[in-house]
Amino acid sequence: MILLTGGAGYIGSHTATLLLNNGYDVVIADNFYNSTPDVIRFIGQITGKVFQVYNIDVTDKDALAQIFICNPIEAVIHFAGYKAIGESVQHPVKYYRNNIDSTLSLLETMNEYHVNHLIFSSSATVYGQSPIIPIPESAPTGHCINPYGWSKYFIEHILTDTANVSSNMSVVILRYFNPIGAHESGLIGERPNGVPNNLMPYITQTAAGIRNILHVFGNNYPTRDGTCVRDYIHVMDLAQGHISALEYLLGHRNHGNTEIFNLGTGKGYSVLEVIKTFELSTGIKIPFIFAPRRAGDVPECYADVKKAARLLGWSSRKTLADMCIDAWRWQEFCLKQHI
Ligand code: UFG
Predict the structure, then answer these.
(1) Integer Cα distance of 217 and 223 in angstroms
(2) Mutate-to-test residue for ligand 1 from 82, 217, 298, 301, highest number of ligand atoms within 8 A of CB
(3) Which residues are catalytically annotated?
């Protein structure tokens, strides 16, 4: 049985559908801070499977212990955490407290109940402005520019230190690049709170008429068209990366070990290329204007994905057009449901 903390969130919910469809038993722990209980219903509808859900805060050790007492947990995928970059700058203590506390509670509880396999949701943000592009896992880390990024960086170190001294513990750290898109059913997807910060939700909300115009932050970067380049990856490819990481973790006797994998496509697309692909694949025009650079944006960020291909046998399959079509299908569903 696999415990997903934050399993009702964007990446957690998509991973839950794949785990269930691959025959895994799943338990979800989520406080619905960044999601809603109807996500659980839709995971059930997509998979036709029954699974347990605990409405708990992962920082609450007593509540967490109950899950381990009542279920034969074999491995944990730790998605839970705050993720709004701007908010992390405004409220650093809230971000450090929640993201680090929940991880420490989880580690202590896993240790108490002898659960030794952990997969952690990290982020390409730990690389900051990498001197090496495409970015390999060995690139320097620790040049984060906001408390959200630092919280991921610190947790990576906490996990590595813990696995180093625990002969039974094995950890996989997954560094996500830019997850976008939604489940092919259109029933689950990303639900930003308020005005979206990320590019794809802003594009789909502009296409839906919720936003008037997209601001493209910066057109004088040293890239092929002057706009920033990112490694956008379909959330279902990302979910599949977790299944491959889990199989790797459960199949290897690499105790006392931490492995880090980039999850990206290895291809970089500029903001203008994303807009164009969205327009071509959906037939909807996106009005946009150029605006000043956004603080903290790096010109180029895309993954070297060879390690995941070699050790996990995983690589992404879906195209940028697939990502746009699925993101738009989800946006249309939200419009119909008044979400
Ligand atoms: N952008 C715009 N207009 C918008 C929103 C974004 O032009 O309205 C641009 C940004 O300036 C950037 C690109 O689109 O050039 C991508 O921006 P996102 O906010 O979608 O993604 P980021 O690359 O900034 O950040 C994402 C995640 C982080 C993660 C990081 C890892 O949001 O959580 O990738 O690289 F840390």
Answers:
(1) 13
(2) 217
(3) 148
